[in-house]
Amino acid sequence: MKKNNLYTILVLFLIGFQLQAQEVLTIENALKIALENNFDIKIASNNLDIDKTNVSTGNAGMLPKLTANVVDSNSIQNSTQTRQDGTVTALDNAKNNSLNYGVGLDWTVFDGFKMFAKLDQLKELQKFGEAQLKRTILLKITEVHAVYFDLVQQQQQLTALDTTIMISTKRLELAQNRFKIGKASKLEVLNAQVDLNTDKVTLLRQKESYANRKTVLNQVLAREAGIDFKVVDQVSVDDNLVLADLIALAEKQNPQLEAEIINKRIAELQLKQIKGERYPLISVNSGYNFVDNQSSLGFTSQFASKGFNYGFRASLNLFDGMAQNRNEKIAKIQLENSKIAIEQQSLVLKTELTTAFKTYMTNLELIDLEATNEAIAKQNLSITVDKFKIGTITTIEFRAAQLNYINAKVRYSNAQFQAKLSEIALRELAGNMSF
Question: Which Pfam families does UniProt cross-reference here (predicted)?
Answer without folding.
Answer: OEP
